[in-house]
Specification:
The chain is an alpha/beta fold. It has a single domain, classed as 3-Layer(aba) Sandwich (Rossmann fold), CATH 3.40.50. Helix content is 42%, strand content 17%. The chain is built from 7 helices and 9 strands; from the N terminus they run βαβαβαβαβαβαββαβ. It has helices at residues 18-29, 41-51, 67-81, 105-132, 156-176, 197-201, 218-230; strands at 9-13, 33-38, 57-61, 86-89, 138-143, 181-189, 203-204, 210-211, 239-243. The strands form 2 sheets. The chain has a 7-stranded parallel β-sheet with strand order 3-2-1-4-5-6-9, sandwiched between helices. Helix 1 runs parallel beside helix 2, helix 1 crosses helix 7 and helix 3 (67-81) packs parallel to helix 4 (105-132). It is globular, with a radius of gyration of 18 Å. GO terms for molecular function: oxidoreductase activity.
């Protein structure tokens, strides 16, 4: 039995741009009631406008690193839409390429706050809601990265947190079993967003050279998330990697 209509309620964090925006729009187009969360209210409203008049979307500005704001987000979703079917745990940040010995600790800490602590807080709140609601259960999809498998040069903060997201996914998947909570992860490589714009001009490679890299349409990622979300809770895509076909990931560059 597929996800019932009463549970086609989703929260997308980092929904104001990039992958979050693409996924939110795709979910809304597939009939989900989508709450757009992120720090920038104006960007979230732009996403809502792109969904079109009458689209089942709500805007709730949220800083995912603040526990009280995360709790308020999921309380508001429950009160407005009822049982939660999906969290796309997407909010994340990176840093410019910085050699490890020159990375300021405050920069390290800010990446950990968003990419790991924020992901945990949102997953915890979603887990709590899904465990206690009726009907019980739901799905969490964490946005990892190909950096959850292999690093780029000078990316220690981003890479370390994305490896940690994989551990978060595995623990949630295991701990969610008794409660009909499925958790999977999508690892994305070179989707065309503002964050990846430098790749088209040239980005540092493992051998120290700078070369442009191919990118793919973020809509292709969004379709994958919609597929993962549409499965019955008895089935789960544990890990999916969606990447630009010719990017330097498989092989030796």
């Amino acid at each position: 039995m597929r996800m019932s209509e009463i549970q086609k309620t989703a929260v997308v964090t980092g929904a104001g741009s990039g992958i979050g925006r693409a996924v939110a729009l795709a979910l809304a187009g597939a009939g989900w009631r989508v709450t757009l969360a992120g720090r920038r209210a104006e960007a979230l409203r732009e996403t809502a406008d792109l969904a079109g008049p009458g689209a089942p979307v709500a805007v709730l500005p949220t800083d995912v690193t603040v526990p009280e704001q995360v709790d308020a987000l999921f309380t508001a979703v429950r009160e407005r839409f009822g049982p939660l079917g999906l969290l796309f745990n997407n909010a994340g940040t990176g840093t410019p390429a910085v050699p490890v010995d020159q990375l300021p600790y405050d920069t390290w800490r800010s990446v950990v706050e968003v990419n790991l602590n924020g992901a945990f807080l949102c997953a915890q709140a979603a887990f709590r809601a899904m465990k206690n609601q009726h009907p019980r259960g739901g799905r969490i999809i964490n946005n990892g990265s190909v950096s959850a498998h292999v690093p780029r040069p000078d990316s220690i903060a981003y890479t370390a947190t994305k490896h940690a997201v994989t551990g978060l996914t595995k623990s949630l998947s295991l701990d969610g079993r008794p409660h009909r909570i499925a958790c999977g992860q999508i690892d994305i490589g070179n989707a065309a967003t503002d964050m990846t714009a430098p790749m088209r001009d040239g980005i540092k490679q493992a051998d120290g050279t700078v070369r442009p890299e191919p990118v793919m349409d973020a809509a292709d990622v969004a379709r994958t998330v919609v597929h993962m979300a549409s499965l019955p809770l008895e089935a789960n895509v544990q890990f999916a990697t969606v990447m630009a076909t010719s990017m330097p990931y498989i092989g030796r560059g």
